[in-house]
Write a structure and sequence with these properties.
- By secondary structure, the protein is mostly helical.
- 74% of the residues lie in helices and 3% in strands.
- It contains ten helices and three strands; from the N terminus they run E-H-H-E-H-H-H-E-H-H-H-H-H.
- It has a three-stranded mixed sheet.
- The longest helix is centred in the middle third of the chain and has 34 residues.
- It is globular, with a radius of gyration of 21 Å.
- The structure holds 2-acetamido-2-deoxy-beta-D-glucopyranose (NAG).
- 2-acetamido-2-deoxy-beta-D-glucopyranose (NAG) binds next to helix 1, helix 2 and helix 5.
Length: 305
C-alpha cells in the first residue's frame, strides 16, 4: 500500500537569499507597510467621522480601504519577520489561513470595485434616481454580496488545496502561500483540476475587467450631458476608479490567464499586488480628491482643538 506522510510545515525560499538583499527588502517593505496602514486607516477614520462623506461613494471607499489594510496584513508582516530568519517556515495551518484570507479579501475587493463602478454609473447616468436606487439598504446589500462572493471564492480554493496530499518535498519558492507553488507540491496527479480552478479564476478576471472597462466607457460617453464643473468632477473620480481597476486587474489577468506553470516573474508580480497595490489605493483616492482632502483637514483641526 502507498505510504503517505503528510507535510506539517512548508519552507519558504523568500525573495532573495542574500543577507544584504534581505536588509534592503526589510527597510523597503516595512516602509511600504507603514504607509499602507496609515493611509488606509486614515481614510477609514475620515469617512466614518465626517458627516459630509456619509454618501455611498465614500462608504464604499472606506470599506475598500479597510479591506486593503487587512489584506496587506495577511501577508506583509509575516514576510517582513521572515526576512530575519535563515530558514523560513510556515505551518500547514498558517499556510491555509493565509491562502484563505488572501483570497477572501482579494475576491471581496475585486467585487467591491464592480460595486463602485455601478455606483458611479447610477450617479452619472441616472442622477435623478440616484438617491432612491442607492439607498442605505441597497448599499449594505451590495457590500454583503461582495463579501459573500469573496467568501465563496476563498472557500472553493481552500477546500481544494486542503484536501490535496502533500507528502514532501515541502519547499515553496515564494514568500508566502499561493496557489501555483502549492499545486506544484501536491503529490498526486490532480494538477489538471487544480489548474482548471485557476483557469476559472482567469475567466472571471477577464469577464469582470471587460465589464468594468465597458461600464466606464458608458459613463464617459454620458459625460457630455453634464455641466463643465460636473464633468470635471466626474472625470477626476472616474479617473481614480479606473486607475485602481487597472492596478487590480492587470496582475490578475497576468497571473491566471496563461499556460499552467510557474513563471520566474510570479514573485515580483506577487510583490506588486500583495504589497504595493494596497498602498497605492489611498494615495490615488486622496491626492486627487478635494472633498476627501477637505474632510481630512477638518478632522485634523478638530483633533487639535
Ligand atoms: C462600509 O459601508 C457601510 C454601509 O454602506 C457603512 O455604514 C460603513 O461606515 C462603511 N465603512 C467604512 C469603514 O467606511
Amino acid at each position: 500500500m502507498e505510504q503517505r506522510i503528510n507535510v506539517t510545515e512548508f519552507v519558504l525560499l523568500g525573495l532573495t537569499q542574500s543577507p544584504q538583499g534581505q536588509k534592503i527588502l526589510f527597510v523597503i517593505f516595512l516602509l511600504i507597510y507603514l504607509v499602507t496602514m496609515v493611509g488606509n486607516l486614515l481614510i477609514v477614520l475620515t469617512v466614518v467621522s465626517s458627516p459630509t462623506l456619509h454618501v455611498p461613494m465614500y462608504f464604499f471607499l472606506g470599506n475598500l480601504s479597510f479591506m486593503d489594510a487587512v489584506y496587506s496584513t495577511t501577508v506583509t508582516p509575516n514576510m517582513i519577520i521572515d526576512l530575519f530568519y535563515v530558514k523560513k517556515t510556515i505551518s500547514f495551518q498558517a499556510c491555509m489561513i493565509q491562502l484563505f484570507t488572501e483570497h477572501l479579501f482579494g475576491g471581496a475587493e475585486i467585487l467591491l470595485l464592480v460595486v463602485m463602478a455601478y455606483d458611479r454609473y447610477v450617479a452619472i447616468c441616472k442622477p435623478l434616481h440616484y438617491m432612491t436606487i442607492m439607498n442605505q439598504w441597497v448599499c449594505t446589500l451590495l457590500l454583503l454580496l461582495a463579501w459573500t462572493g469573496g467568501f465563496l471564492h476563498a472557500i472553493i480554493h481552500i477546500l481544494f488545496v486542503y484536501n490535496l496530499p502533500f507528502c514532501g518535498p515541502n519547499v515553496i519558492d515564494h514568500f508566502g502561500c499561493d496557489m501555483y507553488p502549492l499545486l506544484k507540491l501536491a503529490c498526486t496527479d490532480i494538477h489538471i483540476i487544480g489548474f482548471s480552478v485557476l483557469a476559472n479564476d482567469g475567466a472571471i478576471c477577464v469577464v469582470l475587467f471587460t465589464l468594468l472597462l465597458v461600464s466606464y466607457g458608458v459613463i464617459l460617453r454620458s459625460l457630455k450631458n453634464l455641466s463643465q464643473e460636473g464633468r470635471r468632477k466626474a472625470l477626476s473620480t472616474c479617473g481614480s476608479h479606473v486607475t485602481v481597476v487597472v492596478l487590480f486587474f492587470v496582475p490578475c489577468v497576468f497571473l491566471y490567464v496563461r499556460p499552467p506553470s510557474t513563471l520566474p516573474t510570479d514573485k515580483s508580480l506577487a510583490v506588486f499586488y500583495t504589497i504595493v497595490t494596497p498602498m497605492l489605493n489611498p494615495l490615488i483616492y486622496t491626492l486627487r480628491n478635494e472633498e476627501m482632502q477637505n474632510a481630512m483637514k477638518k478632522l485634523w483641526i478638530r483633533r487639535r482643538k
